[in-house]
Amino acid sequence: MPNLVEIRDIQFGYGDRTILSELHMDFPRGKLIAVMGGSGSGKTTILRLIGGQIRAQRGSIKVNGQEIAELDTQGLYAIRRKMGMLFQHGALFTDLNVFDNVAFPMREHTNLSEAMIRDLVLLKLQAVGLRNAAALMPAEISGGMARRVALARAVALDPELLMYDEPFAGLDPISMGVAANLIRNLNDALGSTSILVSHDVHETFAIADYVYFLSKGKIVAQGTPAEMRVSEDPYVKQFVHAEADGPVPFHYPGASLQAELGLETRA
Ligand SMILES: Nc1ncnc2c1ncn2[C@@H]1O[C@H](COP(=O)(O)OP(=O)(O)OP(=O)(O)O)[C@@H](O)[C@H]1O
Asked: Can you name the residues that pair with 162 across neighbouring β-strands?
């Protein structure tokens, strides 16, 4: 199967409130696919559905050919072991040093010897340029470094699927560029498949193979970054060119300013 993850006709809501509908997405093996969209458009919800944390009311989500909704607890546990996740702000365990943070999933999920874990942790830290920071505590490193440690921890078990939720949030432009390149390089070095949720156009377009644009729980545009850059779709244009107003209104809906100021002409 060319796609590691396939989403077909997904419908998901919290209570009566529909969050995602008619969702159809492909995540081909080895590729880095971005999911972009405004706040609340349902991006994180897609990652949670793929990870099996929540279940859709309708439709199918297959990972490696397996229907996620049909897995029992043990099956879910087995498949999640093949997923690396880096969530917003990628919090580290503050009472563990950098080394032990990266070693944590290995100690938790494998029976590897400490000697083997040591070598593997040092290799992961080398990949993110922080081998010499192994003994430092999270409080002693910068935000950008902490994100790189979180990346090393996310890839500790050589996952087939890597999911990143806003990995650039709160980073300065240089750290953002470093993190973006690392995400691309780790994907290629591990031969994995990556899903990147972000609203940072510059960094995302620089590394993604394909981009889905989500608005109000639906895919409104999709294509390569090059195609999206020249897209005439109003939503994509607003997003890519950071226009304040467009299909996504700047103003919270309600009465017009004229009406509020009593200036509206009445017939
Ligand atoms: N546990 C929950 N119960 C009810 N509604 C929720 C829950 N989690 C999320 N939502 C709602 O679902 C919608 C989609 O949320 P989601 O987190 O997927 O959006 P997002 O695109 O990732 O947004 P952001 O970029 O702000 O993180 C939002 O309107 C949110 O308020």
From this structure: 84, 194
